[in-house]
Structures are given as C-alpha cells and as structure tokens.
C-alpha cells in the first residue's frame, strides 16, 4: 500500500524548517546581545548578587566623540551597601564637618591598578581603571581605560559632569 503525495503537508514541513533555520540564524547573530554574561567585567561578577547593590555594565560607553570605554556602575540602595562599597573601594574618609557638604555635591575620582581595583594609586600607568565615586547618589563607576588618551578623556568627562 502506497501513500499519496500530499503537497500541502510537504510545503508546510518545508516552511516550518525554513522558519526554524531563520530563527536559529537570528539567535546565533544576536547571541552576545541576548546573553552578555561573558562580556561583563570581573567587578560586575563580584557584585551582581550582593544584596543592596545594583550593578550595571555598559560596553563601549561613549565618553566623547572618539573614546569608547567599558564601564561598571555600582549603585548602593542602602546605607550599609554604600558603606561596603566605600570600604571595598577605599573611598577617602573626610572630616565630619566637610563630610556633610561632600554628601551633597562631591564626586571623587582616582586611579586604581587593573590587578587590584580596590587600591587607589598615585603613580600613573597606562593600564589603570578610573574610579569615580559619587557621594550624593551613592554610586561608584569603574571605567576600564586602556591608554592615556582614554584616561584623560574619562577624567575630563567626570570633571564636566561635576561642573554641570
């Protein structure tokens, strides 16, 4: 007994296979945007599950017309989380009388070595992080700079942000 060839069923199967292939192709092309976990910084992975801290990672943040850097943003939602971030990143401790003013309008910016982003340094290196801590918003931004041009652009960006 032989079955009769069904054109409708044949073309339906072909259409389903074509749609599945197109979806698979789109998924492969958009994989890094849909599942960016391999693209984040080690600082992001350290704080992503810490309660009271919101973590964001921005790939290729445009600092100015020509400079793009990766940025990890840590925002404390509670005072205890902010104290943890200040302790971890060694945010400068201010005298009590200045601290109240600084809490209203202060942004601290410093360099940290890539090997240990939690230690401020004075010596310049081309392979540093630029760390910016905003006391009013309880936020720490870690800019991943790779050369002196990027470091200067980020520093100027932070200065311009503070002055505005």
pLDDT averaged residue by residue: 80
Radius of gyration: 24 Å
* Discrete helix count: 6
**General form:** elongated
Helix/strand/pairing category: alpha+beta
Q: Spell out the helices and strands N to C.
A: HHHEEHHEEEH
Range of helix content: 40-55%
| Strand order within the widest beta sheet | 1-2-5-4-3
The largest sheet, given as strand count, sense and whether it forms a barrel, is: 5 strands, antiparallel
Count every beta strand, where a strand is a DSSP E run of 2 or more residues.
5
Distance between the termini: 84 Å
How much strand content do the residues show? 15-25%
- The unreliable regions are none
Structure write-up:
The structure is a single chain. It contains six helices and five strands. It is an alpha+beta fold and 164 residues long. The protein has a five-stranded antiparallel sheet. A hairpin with a 4-residue loop joins β4 and β5. The longest helix is centred in the first third of the chain and has 23 residues. The mean pLDDT is 80.
Key words describing this protein structure:
6 helices, alpha+beta, 5 strands, 164 residues
């Amino acid at each position: 007994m032989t079955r009769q060839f069904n054109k409708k069923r044949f073309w339906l199967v072909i259409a389903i296979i074509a749609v599945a292939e197109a979806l698979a192709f789109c998924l492969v092309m958009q994989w890094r945007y849909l599942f960016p976990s391999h693209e984040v910084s080690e600082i992001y992975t350290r704080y992503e599950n810490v309660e009271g801290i919101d973590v964001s990672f921005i790939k290729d943040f445009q600092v100015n017309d020509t400079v793009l850097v990766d940025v990890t943003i840590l925002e404390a939602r509670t005072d205890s989380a902010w104290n943890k971030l200040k302790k971890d990143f060694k945010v400068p401790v201010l005298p009590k009388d200045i601290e109240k003013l600084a809490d209203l309008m202060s942004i601290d910016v410093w360099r940290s070595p890539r090997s240990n982003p939690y230690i401020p340094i004075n010596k310049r290196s081309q392979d540093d992080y630029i760390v910016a801590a905003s006391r009013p918003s309880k936020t720490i931004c870690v800019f991943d700079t790779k050369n002196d041009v990027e470091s200067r652009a980020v520093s100027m960006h932070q200065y311009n942000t503070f002055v505005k």
